[in-house]
Write a structure and sequence with these properties.
Length: 306
């Protein structure tokens, strides 16, 4: 993970930048604007040619230098737009977990599409008349997927959303002619809590009991994704007293974030691992990466959908 492209030594005088948002919440664009003064510095060497969240622009122009994609794939429109930007951009950057891994929306892949629509539109008490809108809407894909499933991605910037410091580092390095890199450490390496190697008596949910504010949450039995999650967030959640939920994606040497965590939990707990529904477990250990996980790919292959 990281970036495989740059502009070469010295960069380009004015870089043409385009951004798009697919299956997304716009949080990654908010993080981009949260760079504040640093964003102003970046914009001195950038010409923002397309961004329908930040400016009034309907068409993606030709000859884009850098394309930033927020969001994953769920509709035919998502596919069309990301393919167009890939064709027109020299460098394509996937920003945020939805674009990189499928993100939280990727958890819909646990369910049948018809069941998901029924829950959202028919059995939802807040939906007027309870019908599924279809007129003039793009076709919905059977699965939610990361953009790398259909286009070549030159750079991946994980996070939900990525911290502004991460975006700043990637953009400034890229614009100066360098090749951006992400941390090779895990969240545990950034965590200030004390680790003793002690095994917990049981696996707990965060609402069960009161965690010791100084001790490793995982050693207390709370499901903290820190060991299998890439560093870069400065262990923000853990410092705030809650467990890491894995939003920076798999750590450098982690082949599958959820399975690696499950393997660790099974070996960690002294008593039997609690029985959890697949929906609950996936939401805990695959919150951001289920759609791109080895487990899900194996499931698709077994069903003949590879």
């Amino acid at each position: 993970m990281g970036c495989s492209q740059n502009f070469g030594g010295g960069g380009i005088v004015m870089v043409k930048l385009a951004t798009i948002a697919l299956m997304a919440c716009a949080g990654c664009h908010v993080s981009l604007t949260a760079m504040s003064a640093k964003l102003v510095e970046v914009l001195k060497s950038v010409e923002l040619v397309h961004s329908y969240i930040l400016m009034d622009a309907k068409q993606i122009p030709d000859n884009v230098d850098v394309g930033i994609v927020e969001g994953g794939l769920k509709t035919s429109h998502d596919e069309e737009v990301v393919k167009e930007l890939r064709e027109k951009a020299k460098i394509l950057i996937a920003v945020g977990d939805c674009a990189c891994f499928g993100g939280v929306p990727g958890l819909i892949n646990i369910y049948r599409l018809d069941d998901a629509f029924k829950a959202a539109y028919i059995d939802n008490p807040t939906t007027v008349e309870g019908f599924r809108p279809t007129k003039d809407l793009p076709e919905t894909r059977p699965q939610a997927l990361p953009i790398s499933e259909i286009v070549k991605v030159d750079c991946m910037v994980p996070g939900c959303p990525p911290r502004e410091t991460t975006l700043e580092s990637v953009l400034t390095t890229l614009l100066s002619g360098g090749t951006p890199t992400l941390s090779s450490q895990s969240v545990c390496d950034e965590c200030p809590r004390k680790k003793t190697g002690e095994k917990p008596e049981a696996i707990r949910r965060l609402h069960e009991g009161t965690p010791d504010p100084d001790k490793c949450l995982l050693e207390q039995g709370y499901i903290c994704m820190g060991p299998v999650t890439r560093a870069g967030c400065k262990a923000a959640c853990v410092r705030a007293g809650v467990t890491c939920d894995g939003c920076y994606g798999p750590a450098e040497q982690t082949w599958d974030q959820g399975l690696a965590m499950l393997d660790g939990l099974i070996g960690l707990a002294k008593e039997k691992f609690p029985r959890l529904k697949i929906e609950t477990l996936s939401g805990m250990i695959y919150r951001y990466t289920f759609a791109s996980s080895i487990l899900y790919k194996m499931t698709r292959k077994a069903k003949g959908k590879a």
